[in-house]
Design brief:
The complex is a heterodimer of chains A (855) and B (133). Chain A has 855 residues and is an alpha/beta fold. Chain A contains 26 helices and 38 strands. The radius of gyration of chain A is 31 Å and the shape is globular. Chain B is an all-beta fold. Helix content of chain B is 0%, strand content 36%. In chain B, the strands form three sheets. In chain B, strands 2-3-4-8 form a four-stranded antiparallel β-sheet, with no helix packed on it. A three-stranded antiparallel β-sheet of chain B has the order 1-10-9, with no helix packed on it. Chain B has a three-stranded antiparallel β-sheet with strand order 5-6-7, with no helix packed on it. The N and C termini of chain B lie close together (10 Å). Classes of the chains: A alpha/beta (855), B mainly beta (133). Chains A and B meet through helix 15 and helix 16 of A and strand 2, strand 3, strand 5 and strand 6 of B.
């Protein structure tokens, strides 16, 4: 417990390092010795800046936040957000904010950096859209607003000034906002800090191939009002370029204003000078993270900041601790889907260093390995286009592992069995996760202590929860350790099948099995199956062969919803949802639906999926209801199955003044193609007629948005419990290519997803992520394209409305009897009227009714 | 539960329905005197005439028949007969279609909450007649 006499510790800055520092304090019990106050000028509590860009692809502020929301409160730490510290008075030992002064005994600066914006004469139109930056959540909101405000009669364009790491990330963000992105770089190559000339060139070609325009060697001289876009940028020795917004990403500067004004020692080019203990020139003030300058260097990455935080926390509680000794600035990134890696001395600055280079002009790949003069140790490396070499090279550099006789083999294409460094070749001290200081030894210890899955490992060691760069290596080491102890991870579907869903799918396909019994007899254990494996197998059989689901052998496998082709409600009645493709419906059909609803006294509601749901149908009425609906031209909507649900559409260019394509026609094409397709989980689609996106396509498993030249395809979005924005997959597709890609994507999902896994979760679990998916689906890297299309075509050709099929067969209709030996209805289904429609009576209402009758 | 009737001429056996009314591997519901009786029919699987489940009466056909209350105590709806049948830890069970609790076919006990137990009835097949004993 702290008291009013406890020494006061103030932390300025609640960013990534500031937050990590608090966790380190708590871990060392310092929160019980100090009265701690933290100031953060942003309105959000600490969040994951490294993954800031995900704010544009589905994560919100809460999803990005670090640690539990009540972390500070729980540990008695006072967190004051939205409060800027304006001065430090070192002689009085106080800090000042707009709310007054607060005394400290120990002070920690964790103020991070601010984006550098070069002085360029710029037209002032009061919007600030020509001077945006990319650092905070609020910055991203401003960029989003600026992009949204652009008039739509022209195509929208955004420029990023600065072709470094962050600049390219910002360009990617602009693309995801639907803008044509341009990168303007002053230097003659991209990523001048990390890459050499050749690497920069390879990266430029790859990025241009993705549709981002790159202008190197461009010095911006002036920004004036534009003609076709908001602004016109002028360059020295080059043609001007027009754009609707400009994001500056020309480097960061340590946020050292407070330190400067209170007279702490700074570096020549800024940064608060610290020693190995992270103490500044004032012994009661520490500086950690990006604002700190150590040995003449600032560190613009999280890992070194975290190390400083541990050092400072040790100091404060009087522990010996590790002195800060600099940090490795190696980085591995995916920029716009292109792998880029830079390790150690990438430029070969070390005296006598020799380089090996591999240049692939066909796919614009580039790799460089820098080794010592004697050829014995690796000093650094540059990778463009393929980071699969990164982990191995990093280990060679970091751990001084002796190079093979032919060092060049480390960067040559893998095919010829080049020596890769297996997990067992790494020493125990090898750093696996540099963000959280987790060595191979620590992973082994966790396994020794019984940890047997990645999620627990991450929770226990924190490995891979920082920048995420180490995930692949961590998994490799972890699995190797498990295997070497003879532990295998149980992935069985249930007690009846020691297989995953994916394996069962392959068995069904390869052995051409068409029944549960056949699969169970050959590959199952125990009897009967259960409510896990039966519906899963039924779904696999349907995805493969699409036989009518009322067929006798399939009936016992289905959930009640599939069995009766309607959704069971809480009182045992069903809802009836006819397909209304694209949400388009004729007045006659509306009237027919109304007539059915009226006749069977069904509660009627417009659904969130642009169709109409009729609730409260009794089992024995389902066939008659459907006969009437089918006569009126309806077919089943598969609201019950794990299958294609709806394709939402907007009205499109037929009516809407902004529409650029016929979104309704495309929605109908898609819905009619994939209706009846059964899959690991339900599938939702939408088609919007222009970028205003009225159909909300970016929240769907498959989203299609019209462009002037065709269709943009978005994939793997989700509403529901954990919303996820769909990701842009391909642009300006013609109709045929669009359908081809969707065919392949859906069949690949069906082939590889887990049971009850929506496309969003599946996509997140795919190793290699979106790029891997693009490789497989667009570039056909597995050579599966034709097969997947053929499999989809088979399902499409097999389609028949399940209700039409059932109504033809008296045997199947016998299922719809409430009682097999009596024609009465279920007497316990009781409805009352509310807002002029029926609804199930509540238990208290039923009780009251019973009393009325008996009295 | 039972299959062919132990005493072929039990006098007070009640006729419920015909074998044709049953659905192999699944359930149907019969009405008897104010009770809703869910009937589950597990036909023999090829080569499994000697049923290994000690709780099932082995017969020449190797099939089994169970009768349980159709009323689901968790949702209050009459839906048990529309549940999916399976085996969990060696016991034949039905899963309620509403909130998915499992009930043992042989005695109606709920696996998730043994306090809750469905009424069961002795049923059997005599020829093609489904009888309540
Ligand atoms: C009827 C409807 C609500 C309404 O009155 O509007 C509805 C009703 C049900 N939804 Fe839904 N959902 C309905 C639109 C949605 C939407 C909106 C949409 O599709 O645009 C969503 C969010 C979008 C999404 O799925 O990404 C939605 C997300 C869910 C989820 C969460 C899925 C997830 O991935 O997180 C479930 C639970 C599940 O599937 O496991 C669910 C499950 C259900 C079930 C099936 C629950 C159940 O088992 O009883 C409801 C029964 C439907 C019935 O009885 O007919 N419903 N549900 C909507 C039917 C649309 C249709 O025409 O088919
Ligand atoms: C888009 C993006 C991508 C990145 N990707 C990577 C990556 O892949 N790998 C990697 O290692 N690093 C990456 N980084 C860098 C990483 O985010 C930083 O290294 C890290 O955030 C530094 O943490 P910090 O706490 O020092 O600074 P910050 O996180 O910037 O936190 C400083 C906080 O202090 C607040 N503050 C400043 N002055 C005051 C004051 N006077 N009063 C109150 N509060 C104040 C600021 O508002 C800010 O919230 C990325 C950064 C960005 C922007
Ligand atoms: S999305 Fe559709 S309705 Fe919305 S503006 Fe575009 S064309 Fe019009
Ligand atoms: S190295 Fe950053 S999370 Fe492991």
């Amino acid at each position: 417990m702290t008291t009013s006499h406890s020494p006061r510790l103030i932390v300025i800055g609640n960013g990534m390092v500031g937050h990590y520092f608090l966790e380190q304090l708590v871990e060392r019990g310092a929160h019980e010795r100090f009265a701690i106050t933290v100031f953060g000028e942003e309105r959000h509590r600490a969040y994951d800046r490294v993954h800031l860009s995900e704010y544009f692809s589905g994560r919100d502020a809460e999803g990005l936040a670090l640690g539990e929301a009540d972390f500070c409160a729980r540990h008695g730490i006072e967190l004051r957000l939205g409060e800027h510290v304006s001065t430090i008075d070192r002689s009085a030992r106080t800090v000042t904010t707009e709310r007054g002064d607060l005394p400290y005994d120990q002070l920690v600066l964790a103020t991070g950096s601010y984006p550098f914006v070069p002085q360029i004469p710029t037209v002032d139109d009061g919007t600030g859209h020509a001077g945006l930056v990319y650092r905070t959540l609020d910055d991203l909101d401003r960029i989003r607003d600026a992009a949204a405000g652009v008039a739509d009669n022209t195509h929208r364009r955004g420029v990023v000034i600065g072709g470094g790491l962050l600049g390219l990330e910002a360009a990617n963000a602009l693309t995801s906002l639907g803008l044509e992105a341009h990168v303007v770089e002053f230097a003659p190559r991209l990523m001048p800090v990390q890459l050499d000339d050749e690497g920069g060139r390879a990266l430029k070609r790859q990025i241009e191939a993705l549709g981002v325009h790159v202008h190197v060697d461009h010095a911006t001289t002036e920004i004036t009002p534009g003609e076709t876009h908001r602004y016109r940028m002028h360059f020295k020795d080059h043609e001007p370029l027009e754009t609707d917004l400009i994001v500056f990403s020309a480097g960061i500067r340590p946020q050292d204003r407070l330190a400067r004004e209170c007279g702490l020692t700074l570096g020549e080019r800024g940064g608060v000078m610290i020693n190995d203990a992270c103490v500044t020139s004032d012994p009661s003030i520490y500086a950690i993270g990006e604002c700190a300058l150590w040995s003449g260097r600032v560190f613009g990455l999280v890992a070194p900041g975290y190390t400083m935080a541990r050092t400072a926390a040790d100091q404060l509680v009087g522990l010996e601790g590790e002195p800060f000794a600099g940090a490795d600035m190696s980085t591995k990134l995916k920029l716009l889907g292109v792998d880029v890696g830079s390790i150690g001395d990438a430029h070969g600055h070390t005296e006598g260093a020799i380089s090996y280079r591999f240049i692939d002009e066909a796919t614009h790949g580039y790799r460089r390995l820098v080794v010592s003069a004697d050829g014995k140790t690796a000093l650094g490396a540059v990778l463009v286009g393929d980071n699969s070499y990164y982990d191995t090279l990093l280990q060679y550099v970091q751990n001084g592992i002796a190079l093979p006789d032919d060092p060049a083999s480390l960067i040559l294409p893998h095919s010829n069995g080049a020596p890769t460094l297996g997990a067992d070749a790494l020493p125990d001290t090898a750093m696996i996760c540099s963000c959280h200081n987790v060595s191979k030894g620590a992973v082994c210890q966790a396994v020794e202590a019984g940890c047997s899955d990645m999620a627990t490992l991450k929770a226990d060691t924190k490995a891979s929860t920082g920048c995420g760069g180490c995930t692949a290596l961590l998994k490799q080491v972890f699995e190797h350790e498990l295997e070497s102890r003879g532990i295998s991870v149980d992935k069985s579907l249930c007690e009846h099948f020691a297989y995953t869903r994916q394996e069962l799918y392959s068995l069904v396909r390869v052995e051409e099995l068409t029944s549960f019994e056949a699969l169970h007899a050959r590959h199952g254990t125990g009897q009967l199956g259960c409510d896990i494996c039966k519906p899963a197998v039924a779904s696999i059989l349907a995805s493969c062969w699409n036989a009518p689901i009322m067929d006798a052998s399939l009936v016992p496998l289905q959930d009640t919803n599939d069995t009766f082709m309607a959704n069971m409600q809480k009182n045992g009645t069903y809802s009836v949802v006819p397909r209304i493709p694209g949400g388009e419906i004729t007045p006659d059909k509306l009237i027919a639906m109304g007539a059915v609803a009226k006749k069977y006294d069904l509660y009627t509601k417009i659904t969130g999926g642009q169709r109409i749901d009729l609730f409260g149908a009794e089992l024995q009425d389902l066939p008659e209801i459907w006969r009437e609906l089918i006569d009126a031209g309806f077919e089943t909507g598969h609201a019950y199955g794990k299958s294609t649900r709806t394709v939402k559409s907007c009205v499109g260019n037929t009516w809407c003044r902004y529409g650029v394509q016929d979104s309704v026609a495309m929605a109908l094409t898609i819905e009619n193609r994939y209706k009846g397709l059964r899959s690991p989980h339900k599938l939702k689609f939408a088609v919007s007629g222009c970028t205003r996106e009225c159909a909300e396509a970016q929240s769907k498993d498959v989203g299609v948005i019209a462009t002037e030249h065709g269709w943009n395809l978005y994939v793997c979005g989700n509403g529901g419990m954990r919303p996820r924005h769909a990701e842009l997959f391909a642009t300006d597709l013609d109709d045929a290519t669009l359908l081809k890609l969707i065919d392949r994507l859906l069949m690949f999902y069906i082939r590889t997803a887990d049971r009850l896994q929506r496309t969003s979760v599946w996509r997140e679990s795919l190793e290699g992520g979106l790029d891997y998916l693009k490789d497989v689906i667009i570039h056909d890297s597995l050579g599966l394209g034709d097969t997947l299309e053929a499999q989809m075509q088979h399902v499409v050709d097999q389609y028949e409305c399940e209700w039409v099929n059932a109504l033809k067969d008296p045997e199947k209709l016998k299922r719809f009897r409430t009682f097999v030996n009596d024609s009465r209805r279920d007497p316990d289904i009781i409805a009352v009227s509310e807002r002029d429609q029926p609804r199930p009576a509540r238990p208290d209402e039923i009780k009251a009714l019973a009393v009325e009758i008996s009295s | 539960m039972s299959t062919s009737c132990a005493a072929p001429h039990t006098t007070d056996a009640v006729y419920l329905c015909h074998r044709r009314d049953l659905v192999a591997g699944s359930g149907v519901v019969a009405w008897y005197n104010g009770h809703q009786i869910a009937l589950f029919h597990l036909p023999a699987r090829p080569g499994e005439a000697d049923v290994t489940d000690p709780h099932e009466n082995a017969t020449d056909r190797g099939e089994a028949l169970y009768a349980l209350d159709n009323h689901d105590p968790f949702s209050g709806a009459n839906v048990i007969g529309r549940g999916i049948i399976g085996h969990v830890n060696g016991e034949a069970v039905v899963a309620s279609p509403i909130y998915k609790q499992h009930f043992r076919l042989r005695d109606g006990v709920c696996l998730e909450d043994p306090e809750k137990r469905l009424t069961t009835w002795p049923v059997c097949l005599r020829g093609d007649d489904v009888l309540l004993e």
